Amino acid sequence: MNANWHVKCFLCDMCKKELADTGFIRSAGRALCHECNAKVKADKLGKYVCHKCHGIIDDQPLKFRGEVYHPYHFNCTTCGVELDANAREVRSRPGLAANDTNELYCLRCHDKMGIPICGACRRPIEERVVTALGKHWHVEHFVCAKCEKPFFGHRHYERKGLAYCETHYHQLFGNLCFVCNQVIAGDVFTAMNKAWCVHHFACSVCDQKMNQKTKFYEYDLKPVCKKCYEKFPQELRRRLRRQHEATPRKSPS
């Protein structure tokens, strides 16, 4: 590097490991150990570096105990076959630290163990399982298709192979009150192709509350009570009456 160094001062620019006995590679004016240099090259290529051999992984990596590897460094715990990126990591003895007990299995041997696979991350589910939409899920991976928040045991609604929380299901497919824009949890009053909370259905002129027994008319796409309607000009009332008789009113459901 065109300079003199104490042995303890000549360090990898990234990981700070001493380089005098291990050798180094000069990269963009920096001294890097072989492992860090491989990481820099992999980052430029958008690839992973194997945690065991420190070589660049050209194909799909195998993730094991929080690190990534070339799959061919491992064999199935049961049958001994060389593994590929589809291998499954399983905690062999519950109750102990995961990194001390995890083992790898080929896909065939794993399927024989009957351990469910998460429909979201495609990893084994070793603890609590959520079964919905014809699949199994980690609790934290079973989420609303709209807001992506986990249900954590709360009620969900299914439509066309997707799950939704109550708010977004009703927002997308159900009834929102025309006045308060909130999900209508109780009885629904529907009229003029709109929905109201029963206590929000009122005359658009005088704001008097109305119910299923109240006679009303449609004016400018809004409901008008009989008292306000009778104050309208005769010709307007005649036209509104014809429209009202042609469109039957719906009762609460």
Strand proportion, as a percent range, falls in: 15-25%
Low-confidence runs = 94-98
**Strand line-up in the sheet with most strands:** 1-2
Q: Please, how many domains?
A: 4
Quaternary state, please? single chain
CATH fold description of the largest domain: Cysteine Rich Protein
Number of strands: 16
**Average pLDDT taken over every residue:** 83
Tell me what the structure shows.
The chain has helices at 34-45, 98-101, 107-112, 166-173, 226-229, 234-246; strands spanning 25-27, 30-32, 48-49, 56-57, 62-64, 67-69, 88-91, 102-105, 129-132, 135-138, 157-159, 162-164, 188-191, 194-197, 216-219, 222-225. With 253 residues, it is α+β, with helices and mostly antiparallel strands. The longest helix is centred in the last third of the chain and has 13 residues, at 234-246. The radius of gyration is 33 Å and the shape is elongated. 18% of the residues are buried. This is LIM domain containing protein.
